[in-house]
Design goal:
Blueprint (H helix, E strand, L loop, with lengths): L1 H10 L24 E3 L12 E7 L4 H15 L5 E7 L7 H12 L3 H13 L8 H12 L3 H8 L2 H16 L7 E4 L3 E3 L1 H4 L2 H18 L4
Amino acid sequence: MKKIVLLLLTFSIFNATAQQPAVAKAQKNYMAGKHYTVIDPAFETDNVEQVIVYEFFGYKCPHCSNFQTYMKPWHDKLPKNVKLVRIPVVFQPGWDIYAKAYYTAETMGIIEKTHQPLFDAIHKQRKNFRTIEQLASWFEENFSVDKAAFLSTANSFMIDSKVRQSNNMMRKMQITSTPTIIVNGKYKPNVKALGTIPGMLDMVSYLSSLESKEMGLN
């Protein structure tokens, strides 16, 4: 619960203002150590064709749910040389089934249909899923997903490996709270210093543009 309390204090300063475009204008006043942290050593993305923007989140995290109001339109406007990769984390007991559900939906090719509705089910409809079987039933009822196929995938070695890999990435990129954005395994925005969620995403776009130029993708 410590992380949730800290997140509440952090996000209480956000001013829910207008959405910002995915491609930001250059801001020369961004300062490393103040507006963003440089991750050392950097996490290697192994993608030479796109800048990877990681979104570390948890379905049970209320701030992650609120964050989607801003993240979805930002994601929809991304240029082709920037890719969003969501990483479900396991910070609290019981979060593992949600990480499995995310990767299962992604594997089954339905994640863009189910991502926001699952947030809504938890935070607006107040559903409390305690088992992967309950989540499988929800996917079946709302998206006509075969429950047996969902459970078979969720309990597979492949999904278990993805969850363990996400936990490893969380440690390597020094993730201590959710939601957290990491640009190309190198930069972690300081949300408090930037003041608003749109302001933070504006800087993420700027850093993504810099990385794109460095990689020769522009």
